[in-house]
């Protein structure tokens, strides 16, 4: 069964800028403000490490470490928190999931789809209850703003 949460929207920036923002500026948009992100590793190839720390304004920290499963430039990034480097299953992950990010050119913009696929309905509901939709929509807007800056486009009003 597919226990998926997803958001989709058109971002007002070309796919080349979205991709550049994704791979070169991830710490600027990865978690909803006013939280911030420390990027420890982003190895965009199958088996590459993907590690971040999300930090709240009060100093609360959430470490995430996982693997890139697939990275196709300007098209898709797939990662999971279920495995550590060396394809070792991770114990103690609150809810393992596979994250998918898809980028499709559409007119002068990019159709952006971000999804999280969970092993169980309970894990899916836990993620939903943490504010998945609002959080991932906020992150998409932040990604769009960074991509517009990268592309030399004016900020959206």
Word description of this protein:
There is one protein chain. By secondary structure, the protein is an alpha+beta fold. 27% of the residues lie in helices and 41% in strands. It has helices spanning 15-24, 26-29, 121-129, 132-150; strands spanning 3-11, 36-42, 49-55, 61-72, 76-80, 83-84, 88-89, 97-106, 109-118. It has a 7-stranded antiparallel β-sheet with strand order 1-9-8-5-4-3-2. It has a two-stranded antiparallel sheet with strand order 6-7. A hairpin with a 5-residue loop joins strand 3 and strand 4. Helix 1 (15-24) crosses helix 4. The longest helix is centred in the last third of the chain and has 19 residues, at 132-150. The radius of gyration is 15 Å and the shape is globular.
What's a quick, concise take on this entry?
The protein has helices at residues 15-24, 26-29, 121-129, 132-150, and strands at residues 3-11, 36-42, 49-55, 61-72, 76-80, 83-84, 88-89, 97-106, 109-118.
Which terms summarize this structure?
157 residues; two-stranded antiparallel sheet; 4 helices; alpha+beta; seven-stranded antiparallel sheet
Write the layout of secondary structure elements.
Blueprint (H helix, E strand, L loop, with lengths): L2 E9 L3 H10 L1 H4 L6 E7 L6 E7 L5 E12 L3 E5 L2 E2 L3 E2 L7 E10 L2 E10 L2 H9 L2 H19 L7
Antiparallel strand pairs: 1-9, 2-3, 3-4, 4-5, 5-8, 6-7, 8-9
Helix pairs in contact: 1-4
């Amino acid at each position: 069964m597919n226990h998926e949460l997803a958001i989709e929207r058109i971002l007002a920036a070309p796919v080349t800028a979205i991709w550049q923002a994704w791979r070169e500026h991830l710490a600027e948009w990865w978690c909803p403000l006013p939280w911030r992100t420390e990027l420890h590793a982003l190895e965009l190839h199958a088996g590459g490490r993907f590690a971040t720390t999300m930090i709240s304004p009060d100093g609360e920290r959430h470490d995430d470490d996982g693997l890139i499963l697939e990275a196709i430039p300007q098209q898709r990034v797939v990662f999971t928190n279920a495995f550590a480097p060396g394809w070792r299953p991770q114990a103690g992950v609150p809810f393992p999931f596979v994250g998918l990010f898809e980028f499709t050119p559409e007119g002068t913009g990019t159709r952006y789809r971000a999804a999280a696929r969970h092993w169980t309905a309970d894990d899916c509901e836990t993620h939903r209850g943490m504010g998945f939709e609002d959080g991932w929509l906020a992150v998409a807007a932040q990604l769009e703003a960074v991509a517009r800056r990268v592309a030399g486009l004016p900020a959206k009003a």
